Each structure stands twice: as C-alpha cells, then as structure tokens.
C-alpha cells in the first residue's frame, strides 16, 4: 500500500467519510479493500498460443507435453493416425536464428545441418547430445540444403546466386551459377535424383538486403539504384542484375543445366521433392519476391509426372493449401515412404495454422502439426529417419513419427 492515506489513494473514501465510520472493524475493512486495489497487477495480454487448452510452453523450463496425441499433432483424417507417433511430443531443440531454413540430415555423421540465412551461417545439431554449433560461416546466405546419394552436401546460395556441392575431401564444387549464359536469381531448394542429377528452384528471394544482396543499380530489386548492394559484402558481390524468370532446373551429371519447369507453369517456385519412386515431382509456388514482375506465386503446390527421359508432363495443381479458409503458404516439401507429401506452412499471423501440412498422394489433407512460429522448411532424419525436423522462423523443432522419410536428406 502507498504511504499516503487511504482517502488520498482512493478518492471514493473521503476524509469526512472516514471520520464517520464507526468502529475499528469498519476502518480495517476499508483499509484492506484499498490495499487490495493498490496491489492488484494490471492485466497484460499474453502472446497468442497455437493451442489454448492446455496452454503450451516450449521452453526448457516448461511443463511436460507428452500426452497420448500431442495436442498440436492433429489427425484431419483417420489415415494420419498410422503416420503420427501417439506418445511423442513436439520438441523445440534450439532457438536463436534470424530466419531458419533448409534442414538436411546427414545419416553417416548423425547430425542435422540447417541455414540461418540473414546471419550468413549454417548450424549443426548433433544427435548424440543435442549440441548446436556453427557449422559453416560465411555460407553465402545459403537457403536450401540436401545430401546426395553419395553423402555430399548440396547448398543453394542466395548471395552468390549458385548451387554448390561440398565434396568429401573438403573442397567445394560449383554445380550451377548460370543458365543460357545468364546469372541465376537466387537458388532456393535442391534435391538429388538417383541418376546423379540435381534439381533446383530459382526464385528471386535472395535479391534483398536481409537474405542476400539486391541487384546492382537498375536491376529489378534495385530499380531506383538507391541501395548499395556492396555494403558489408566481399569485393566480388554487388554487380549482378537479375536476368532470368523464376524457373526450375535440372543439373545433368555432365554439368549441363536444363530448364524443366517454366515460370508460366509454376511462378516463384520454392520447395521441391520427388515421390518415393521418383516418378512425380512436387513444386511449391510461393508469393512474389523483390522486384518480381512476373506472374507471382499463389501459395500452392503443383505436381508433374517425371518421364524416363527426365521430361515433365501432366502438370497440375496438387493443393491450394487452404485450410479452414486460411491460406497456409507452402515452402519446403518432403515425401515419406508411403508417398504422403509433407509441406511446411506459413500462415503468417493466423495463429494455429503455421507448422506442417500432410497430404496423401491424391492431394487430400490428412494431418497437421501446429507450431508457435512460421515454418520455412522440413526434412526427415534421425538414425531411423522417423523424425521430422522443422526449421521454423527463429527455432528448430522436431517430432518422432510412425513413418520414415523417402530419399536422402
């Protein structure tokens, strides 16, 4: 209670009224009521939660979250019940990134690598003790990462506008930085094929200050020329201008780069993955990037048949990613061994719809995983490849499942 009198601290109790109060008991009651008023804390609205009953705390000091069915693992269809692990909880393994992306599992090393794009670094989580350390810096503002069938890491570099491979002897090979003599935009995600080829998407998202470097003056992401793209960069950076539409490409084992999906088919392509038999290619289409003058993505997923000659056909819309009237913008994609497609979900401020969507091979939504942050990309990993890792905004999450991921990391 404040040191000033009851009447001063509570205007409704005047001095005259206090003098008229008979008995010490009434005076004590008035003082107690005023003390309660003075000490009552102001109500503060808390941050929104992905699930309100029960409330959730992902911090290390939070309450246990192991229920039979984690409250944020949701079976939309009974088919999902055989894919989720009923007594496994979602865990936040680490937090501290600016924008987490591109998780990939190294089976031989038993570690997860992922990108922290704005911080220009790759991070590594060790499966044996859960330790996180900086794996590679600078990383060329890398986004998507993957491992090929020989265990070599593939990375898409926003800053250098290229796809690279880290060889087993420690050297680095540039797999692609141009198409038709023109510099790539900012490769985003890459997957390996058993024939030795690599397939990747090339949207324009790296053409911004936060995740790479804008175009040189006059380029689409710096048309006014007011931004200096060379600030804070190596001397060779800052001279490129965007020249290509947003396409998907295939890197042949010979080194030749072929166009496989045009901007007209899937504008602003982002995540991609093959079906377990490699007869289908899934491609996510996201929103417009910086300086994007093309059609722009619609926040949906497309699927193509892959022929024996690596030609794509029968392209169609797989899912519009609308859930309960909410647009759940897809990004990273992965398939499990049953052929179900798992897609990260970016629903923005629509609390409760960020996380992961799971579709059956026919494109029907069968399950969801809710996270308290926007999810950028996902991958299957762990020694049994039955753990789904989720790179979500500032954090890394994981949950054990009742199925395994298809293909290498």
Secondary structure layout:
Elements: H1 6-9, H2 15-20, H3 24-39, E1 73-75, E2 91-95, E3 100-106, E4 111-116, E5 121-126, E6 132-136, E7 142-147, E8 153-157, E9 162-166, E10 172-176, E11 178-179, E12 182-183, E13 190-192, E14 198-202, E15 247-251, E16 257-261, E17 269-274, E18 280-285, E19 300-306, E20 312-319, E21 322-323, E22 326-327, E23 329-335, E24 341-346, E25 355-359, E26 365-370, E27 377-381, E28 387-392, E29 395-400
Antiparallel strand pairs: 1-26, 2-29, 3-4, 4-5, 5-6, 7-8, 8-9, 9-10, 11-12, 13-14, 14-15, 15-16, 17-18, 18-19, 19-20, 21-22, 23-24, 24-25, 25-26, 27-28, 28-29
Biggest pleated-sheet summary: 5 strands, antiparallel
Q: Average pLDDT across residues?
A: 88
The percent range for helix content is: under 10%
Distance between the termini: 62 Å
What's the alpha carbon Rg, rounded to whole Å?
A: 26 Å
Determine the number of helices (DSSP H or I, runs of at least 4 residues).
3
Which structural class is indicated by helix and strand composition? mainly beta
Explain what you see.
The chain is mostly beta strands and 409 residues long. It is built from 3 helices and 29 strands. The chain has helices spanning 6-9, 15-20, 24-39, and strands spanning 73-75, 91-95, 100-106, 111-116, 121-126, 132-136, 142-147, 153-157, 162-166, 172-176, 178-179, 182-183, 190-192, 198-202, 247-251, 257-261, 269-274, 280-285, 300-306, 312-319, 322-323, 326-327, 329-335, 341-346, 355-359, 365-370, 377-381, 387-392, 395-400. It has a 5-stranded antiparallel sheet, with no helix packed on it. Strands 2-29-28-27 form a 4-stranded antiparallel sheet, with no helix packed on it. It has a 4-stranded antiparallel sheet with strand order 3-4-5-6, with no helix packed on it. The relative contact order is 0.14. The model is unreliable at 1-40 (pLDDT under 50).
